[in-house]
């Protein structure tokens, strides 16, 4: 059983979400009809994220700038910032990946029912 300290633990994170044909909701702020999303495979989504992640890690691009341009989440307008959240507030794979990161660390690709993400833990 988790201790009470773990129960109250919170993190702050930003993410970039790329939706695909398997996503539970095939629409986003940049693809309201879901045409592009419905035609995107999971492999294509993951490959796009891997490229974005490489750009960030190499210093050629800024996480927030890429999130604002590429993320299918409405958090894109905030540079991908999801704010602070605790346990059981996000889909389990997303939560597990975020809590496993150190502050300032970026995840590999993470699959959820929403799509494929890269996550940057900010606090």
Give a written overview of the molecule.
With about 120 residues, the chain is of the alpha+beta class. The chain has one domain (about 5-120): Chitinase A, domain 3. Helices cover about 35% and strands about 20% of the residues. The protein has helices at about 5, 35-40, 40-55, 65-70, 90-100; strands spanning about 10-20, 80-85, 110, 115-120. Strands 2-1-4-3 form a 4-stranded antiparallel beta sheet, sandwiched between helices. Mean pLDDT is about 95; it is low at about 1-5. This is Peptidyl-prolyl cis-trans isomerase.
List keywords for this structure.
isomerase, PPIase_PpiC_CS, four-stranded antiparallel sheet, PPIase_Pin1, PPIase_PpiC, peptidyl-prolyl cis-trans isomerase activity, Chitinase A, domain 3, disordered N terminus, 123 residues, globular
Look at the structure and give the mean pLDDT. 94
Give a count of the beta strands, DSSP E runs of length 2 or more.
4
Query: How many structural domains can be distinguished in the coordinates?
Result: 1
Helix content: 25-40%
Structural class, from secondary structure content? alpha+beta
Shape: globular
Give the topology string: H per helix, E per strand. Answer: HEHHHEHEE
Spans of at least 5 consecutive residues whose pLDDT stays below 50 are 1-6
Largest β-sheet summary: 4 strands, antiparallel
Q: Kindly report the spatial arrangement of strands forming the biggest sheet.
A: 2-1-4-3
Strand content of the residues, in percent? 15-25%
Compute the gyration radius: what is it? Answer: 14 Å
- In CATH's first tier, which class applies? Alpha Beta
Function: Prolyl cis/trans isomerase with specificity for phospho-Ser-Pro bonds.
Enzyme class: isomerase
Keywords: Isomerase, Rotamase
Organism: Oryza barthii
């Amino acid at each position: 059983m988790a201790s009470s300290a773990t129960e109250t633990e919170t993190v702050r994170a930003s993410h970039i979400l790329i939706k695909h044909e398997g996503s539970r909701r095939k629409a986003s702020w940049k693809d309201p009809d879901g045409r592009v999303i419905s035609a995107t495979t999971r492999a294509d989504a993951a490959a796009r994220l891997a490229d974005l992640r490489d750009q960030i890690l190499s210093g050629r691009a800024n996480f927030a700038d890429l999130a604002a341009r590429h993320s299918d989440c409405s958090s894109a307008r905030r540079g991908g910032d999801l704010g602070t959240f605790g346990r059981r507030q996000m889909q389990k794979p997303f939560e597990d990946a975020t809590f496993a990161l150190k502050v300032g660390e970026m995840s590999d690709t993470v699959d959820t029912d929403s799509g494929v993400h890269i996550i940057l833990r900010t606090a």
